[in-house]
Design a protein that fits this description.
Mean pLDDT of chain A: 93
Order of helices and strands of chain A: EHHEHEHEHHEHEHEHEHHH
CATH class of chain A: Alpha Beta
Radius of gyration of chain A: 18 Å
Low-confidence stretches of chain A: 243-249
CATH architecture of chain A: Alpha-Beta Barrel
CATH topology of chain A: TIM Barrel
CATH superfamily of chain A: Aldolase class I
Strand content of chain A: 5-15%
Oligomer: homodimer
Shape of chain A: globular
Distance between the termini of chain A: 11 Å
Number of helices of chain A: 12
């Protein structure tokens, strides 16, 4: 079974920490991630450099990352201006954050659901014009529905609300709609229920699982998603970023651990563990003071574990 | 769905650390665990006090723990002498460690598989005599098959070997045979395969899943076991003991996190989270220098999480 790992560390990780990684270091890290076999990397976001100075060089990073044949270069954009910049830089795919919780939507993108859906339609329209004007290119648009499993502002997010919004995003014309456990509140039963409904509503346009490990359930939730048919997962090398809590309480699911679990189960990701460990070292050298998480990097592969035949 | 949590911290946890907890502190901790609603606790082991001085007071601890109505008091015994002492102390259930890997068997109990099976038959015989001589008592015997998912000495442990040994243990007359991921090498696909086979071979005598979190898969493996019908899990408060690696890389699955996952999924364990947190504080006061793990204790319950209706 093939599973796509979408590495979000260079965007989700780097925007969550205070240190600013140099453009050169970002490019070295992305080179190492691509060399490890990752086929999709979210390399940055096109947002206000005043709000997120860590992401100010995303256009340069996109241009660099495009050199890797076979790598899909993604960026996050919250609005049409961001989409313009992303298209100009040459991204292969755009991801738009839409909040399932309206409270989170107002806090994150300062828009109600209706305003955000209007923005999304405008982004899709702009990308379609771009694709029409550049034969041979087919830039994609995906939505990650954040706070889909609960919200720290609003609390419970009704599942019917999540589904209505997912359908509305699909109707807005995006290629895929995924579900994000932004706040680390998901449990495996909920993951199965929501992704089953997502597949029932959207079919092949049901997108990735973006899971966090805040309460230790990141990999259990990934297993639950895999069980009901999810074949695309976001994760972050070293669990970089989003660690509001104690050691080990990383934010994003750790790429190294997720890849280990998938390979141990016989899934194919195209990712090489030794290559991932080399990329981790590149990351560590660039951000020596930033804690990197991951249980498999600490414990090592099990004795007798044959990576190649899994 | 009802799920039994068998708390192994007072045995598995305390024997893995160098500090020796006083008898009084052990009793206070067990009182707090029982007050939190745990219905089964492995309170110690009957082994040579020279080898494991932390366990020298197990008879006293058993006698104390028996005061809690509705609590099943367990102890680990590796041989007939241990069983004698456990029966004299008044345990409700005995657990015997049988290694799936012969290399681990020789290292752990200094016996080959054949020698250990002979010992197991003798233990069962002794317990039957005890039960016959004490009408109204029905001391149980379970086996936890350690290194069932891989061994740090031997490497891969063939699944056929595990099943042969499980059947041999059942034929020796024990009530239940569980599978233990002693070394943290299991993956969810393997957990499902092995427990499915165990149910097929042993039916209702298929026992608990004893899982470790060495490579971060503890809860994913618990979910996998739950999916194929396992309803009894060992875990350790604070992931106490067995932490050979970095922060977060705890040994045993953390009781707090496991209970959170199960409750979030709608399972009933009878355990109260606030009570677990109080027991954790009792443990911390008794062993202030011992790191306690667990993501949910750090992150807290999610906003809007209704413990009572789950």
């Amino acid at each position: 079974m093939n599973v796509l790992i979408s590495e979000v560390g260079p965007r989700d990780g780097l925007q969550s920490i205070t240190a600013v990684m140099t453009t050169e270091a970002k490019c070295r890290w992305i080179d190492a991630l691509a060399a490890a076999g990752l086929r999709e990397i979210e390399v940055g976001s096109f947002v206000s450099p005043k709000r997120l100075p860590q992401m100010a060089d995303t256009a340069l990073v996109v241009q660099h990352a495009r050199r890797h044949t076979g790598l899909r270069v993604m960026a996050l954009v919250p609005n049409v201006q961001g989409a313009e910049a992303a298209l100009a830089a040459g991204v292969h795919k755009i991801t738009v954050p839409v909040s399932a919780s309206e409270a989170h939507s107002l806090a994150n993108v300062r828009k109600t659901h209706e305003q955000m859906l209007a923005e999304l339609r405008a982004v899709v329209q702009r990308v379609r014009e771009h694709n029409a004007a550049h034969p041979g290119t087919a830039v994609g648009v995906e939505v990650g529905l954040s706070t889909a499993f609960g919200c720290t502002l609003q609390g419970v997010v009704p599942e019917d609300d999540v589904m209505r919004l997912a359908v509305a995003c699909a109707e807005a014309g995006v290629d895929e709609v995924g579900l994000s456990d932004t706040t680390g509140m998901a449990d495996p039963a909920q993951v199965r229920r929501l992704f089953k409904r997502l597949f029932a509503e959207l079919g092949v346009r049901a997108g990735a699982a973006h899971l966090h490990n805040t309460r230790g359930l990141g990999l259990a939730n990934a297993l639950a998603a895999l069980d009901v048919g999810v074949r695309s997962f976001d994760s972050s090398q070293g669990g970089l970023g989003g660690c509001p809590y104690a050691p080990g309480a990383s934010g994003n699911v750790v790429t190294e651990d997720l890849v280990f679990m998938l390979h141990a189960m016989g899934c194919h990701t195209g990712v090489d563990f030794e290559g991932l460990m080399r990329a981790r070292e590149v990351l560590h050298q660039a951000l020596p003071n930033e804690p990197l998480y991951g249980m498999v990097p600490e414990a090592g592969l099990p004795k007798g574990f044959d990576w190649t035949t899994r």
